[in-house]
Design goal:
Radius of gyration: 27 Å
Strand order of the largest sheet: 10-11-22-14-25-12
Strand content: 25-35%
Distance between the termini: 15 Å
Largest sheet: 6 strands, mixed
Number of helices: 10
Shape: globular
């Protein structure tokens, strides 16, 4: 124990150790209550510790949980950052031999057992961040937010190519735009066809699909996808027929001199939220009934079942899987099919409402990056005879992009420190 006020429980009794000025931090044994000023009050119960926080919140921490999360050198690998303790060797009913509390947090020693441990320390902030009560978990939960009016603009969401490629701070700002708004732009991108994958690799790894490592969005004579035509595209999530949607899409404009071909992004979270407010039963149908999505061409046949709207265990909207062109024959119960189609049309109609759409023209040397789970994209028709329109695209795994953002945000700090 370092200097400062501390109190320890040992064998059910309280032993207080003081150094320095100020009131002691107290740890109470079973059935005992003590007061605390600026730090949590700690009570030892039969199978857990209870913390009464200065803000009035309470949390309980099972002794096994406190032992199992230990990060001492015997329990967590110093380089791999992964836990190495033999959890099967930790008794489920383990109790600490001693618990000490001071300004730095909780210090626990454990009775001898088959899983070696040098002792466990948890700082107060870590314990606060990992409270298990439902209200605490929901309070710290990060939720995708719908766009607030007015819709975003390119300048406020843009970062220069040179900065993104050379400066972690600039890259972090770009990824933060994608995190908060679902979209970001890179400007001043060189005109070579490998530039888009260079940006992707600066973020994480290129996520390959049945279109390969990268793909060209151009009007073709024999297109295997509607994106490779000059027609308008309705708001959709890319590759909805795949079991795992491509997480993040990058589209780099190499040429765009054709008439038409404006890009449209739609706030999928906002659209689903609006459907839930306006037609609760329609939202229920789209979020609970799985339907088939199908993509077929000469070289592939990909079929998958999923819900059109994805919600998590708390009922929060995660994203959408909306793609009218890939919706297969709806194979839910016949009595519900008509209601499903009405619900599907209602959501499609909402995605066309102007206040949820972000319309812009992607210029040469610009790259748009958007979260394909929460943002739908579309395109107006263009005249392929009036000029060239060539975009180069690729995908990045969503997990990898957000991992990169979190690493940039924490900097050199070791988040394992308790």
């Amino acid at each position: 124990m370092g200097p400062g006020n501390s109190v320890c429980i040992d064998d059910g009794s309280i032993r207080a150790y003081f150094s320095g000025a100020g009131a002691p931090v107290c740890v109470a044994g079973v059935g005992m209550e003590t007061s605390v000023e600026s730090l949590p009050r700690v009570a030892a119960l039969s199978d857990r510790l209870e913390l009464a926080w200065p803000n009035g919140q309470r949390s309980q921490h099972l002794y096994y949980w406190l032992r199992e999360n230990c990060s001492c050198p015997q329990c967590r690998h110093a380089d791999a950052w992964e836990r190495i303790a033999d959890f099967m060797a930790i008794p489920l009913d383990i109790k600490p031999a001693a618990v000490c509390a001071d300004e730095g947090g909780l210090h626990l020693t454990w009775p001898t057992h088959d899983a070696p441990c040098e002792g466990t320390h948890y700082g107060w902030p870590w314990l606060d961040d990992h409270r298990s009560e439902a209200e605490a978990r929901l309070a710290r939960k990060r939720r995708a937010q719908a766009w607030s009016l007015p819709v975003p603009t390119k300048p406020e969401l843009s970062a220069p190519f040179a900065g993104v490629m050379a400066d972690d701070g600039e890259l972090g700002r770009l990824l933060a735009h994608i995190d908060t708004k679902g979209v970001g732009f890179v400007t001043g991108v060189p005109g070579d066809e490998l530039a888009v994958t260079r940006i992707a690799e600066r973020i994480a790894f290129v996520e390959e699909s049945h279109f390969g490592r990268a793909f060209d969005v151009v009007s073709k004579v024999r297109p295997e996808n509607l994106a490779f035509t000059s027609g308008a595209l309705h708001p959709h999530n890319d590759l909805s027929s795949r079991a795992h949607l491509p997480g993040v899409q990058l589209l780099h404009c190499l040429r765009n001199s054709a008439k038409g071909g404006d890009s449209v992004l739609v706030d999928g979270i906002g659209a689903a939220m609006r459907l839930r407010r306006q037609e609760e039963e329609a939202f229920r149908l789209l979020s609970t009934h799985k339907v088939s999505f199908s993509s077929e061409a000469r070289d592939w046949q990909i079929v998958n079942r999923a819900s059109v709207v994805e919600v998590d265990e708390d009922g929060d909207i995660v994203g959408t899987r909306l793609h009218p062109a890939l919706l297969g024959p709806v194979d839910i119960e016949p009595d519900e099919q008509a209601s499903f189609y009405r619900a599907h049309r209602a959501l499609l109609g909402i995605t066309l409402e102007p206040d949820l759409q972000f319309t812009f023209r992607l210029g040469e040397g610009e790259c748009v990056i958007f979260d394909n789970v929460r943002i739908l994209h579309a395109r107006t028709a263009f005249d392929s005879g009036s000029g060239d329109r060539h975009l180069k695209g690729c995908y990045v795994c969503r997990d990898d992009l957000y991992s990169r953002l979190h690493v940039l945000q924490r900097g050199a700090a070791d988040h394992r420190l308790r």
